[in-house]
Amino acid sequence: MSTTAIEARAPSPVAVSLLASVFVVAACGLVYELSAAALSSYVLGDSVLQFSTVIGVYLFAMGVGSWLSRYFERQLPAHFLRIELLVALVGGCLPAMLFLANAYVPGAFRLLLYGGVLAVGTLVGLEIPLVMRILRRDIQLKDLVSQVLTFDYLGALAVSVAFPLVLVPQLGMVRTGLLFGLMNAAVGVWALWLFRHELRRFGAHAAACVLTLAALAVAFVLAERINSLAEDRLYQENIVFAASSPYQRIVVTRGNAGHRLFLNGNLQFAERDEYRYHEALVHPAMAAHGAPRRVAVLGGGDGMAVREILKYPSVEQVTLVELDPNMTALFRDHAQLAALNGQSLRSPKLRIVNTDAFQWLQQPPPAGDDGFYDVIVVDFPDPTNFAIGKLYTQSFYALLSQRLAASGYAVVQTTSPLVARRSFWTVVQTIEAAGLTAMPYHAHVPSFGEWGFVIASRRPWRMPTALPEGLRFLSPDTLPLLFDFPRDMARVPAEVNRLSNQVLVHTYEQEWGKVSGH
């Protein structure tokens, strides 16, 4: 074959540019999809349900867009340019609009969520068929589909890795959406240049590009202001700290109740009464043991539980297993927050391990470490989704049992036995199914209401006769009251929560949904 023939088959600069655009278009579309799913899981809970429904609606909308592309017959470059600008505006602004809707018009959140996903999916579904029809001018049909889909899948791969690891932690959800909106708009500007000789009303197209870029750029600059507007309205207190990590949205506020910590919008503690929660969580198990030397805390990255544990002189080592390093760094280094936990995260007795607690329990202990603990404090968020729900399963408690010393106790925070009665007793039933004795109790924490805990052990739990000095809530005289359940919180039949069914997540959503109105 001659050199001339080879050159004739080589893609034109226009074709190469459009193939590169396919990469960007695919990346942008996936960012909008992931942002919508992540935000809906933050607001509505049950991440599996939210991701499944958002992805399903998005794929359906892409199919609708592909079907509609048959009606675009002439001026394909002009249609492609307009669609790029529309995707840039709707998709790029979608995270910001969802944040604001949740704060100002929460009743409209679902409508805006699925309306936005439908609109973006339809527009993205239109893009690829139009690009393929434009590319048919330069690329043979047998190569066209493979090349377009290759760039499409590569773009999706790049974003699926970058979104949780780089984009959200560094930019946040709002700025990430707007950045990719700007990238979509840039593709529109590039199309304007590539097809400048084919476009009618070139000036109108150019003006649309400029206005779209300007709107997105202004929104990007004001992204923090958008976040502040939404979160100030949502939390109605001065925000001291706000950041997004690969695992959650962390917000700390300060108001009449002092500092309050929110993870993904859910309250974790309030300064004015957190001592009630953490004393109830830690001391019934620690004091009953007598002289615990080695203690593990799973979750509890705020250091409050560690603060209470360090009140026991017998403690030689505390291992804190917290998934999110941003949490432990925040409550170690932020002066006001570190004061709340008594600088416990700087204690020489403390070892911090930033990893998933389930995986940590599965791994063999380090050399020279028998891996057993006298007390294990389990302080995870409530099971609002399956990622957290796995930490309340029979499999998890079976692993926990293997790390518990023969005379040791584990204690698990276990939601409200009043509001979420079946959820509470599901955890009790699950602990017992793992072969452990379960001793449930509860305490009143004004910020949360009636709250539940369960002590798990191999030996019977005995009421301690002494507690550390200086406690503000518990005393040896009042401690027995925590183990008395009135009739409206008494045990009810419950299923075992297993990895294969995660019944607890569904039960929790049903019970708390009645309260929140979800």
From TrEMBL:
It catalyses: S-adenosyl 3-(methylsulfanyl)propylamine + putrescine = S-methyl-5'-thioadenosine + spermidine + H(+). Spermidine binds at residues 278, 302. The keyword Nucleotidyltransferase does not apply. GO terms for biological process: spermidine biosynthetic process. The keyword Transferase applies. GO terms for cellular component: plasma membrane. Pathway: Amine and polyamine biosynthesis; spermidine biosynthesis; spermidine from putrescine: step 1/1. GO terms for molecular function: spermidine synthase activity; thermospermine synthase activity. InterPro entries: PABS, PABS_CS, SAM-dependent_MTases_sf, Spermi_synthase. Catalyzes the irreversible transfer of a propylamine group from the amino donor S-adenosylmethioninamine (decarboxy-AdoMet) to putrescine (1,4-diaminobutane) to yield spermidine. This is Polyamine aminopropyltransferase. It comes from Pseudacidovorax intermedius.
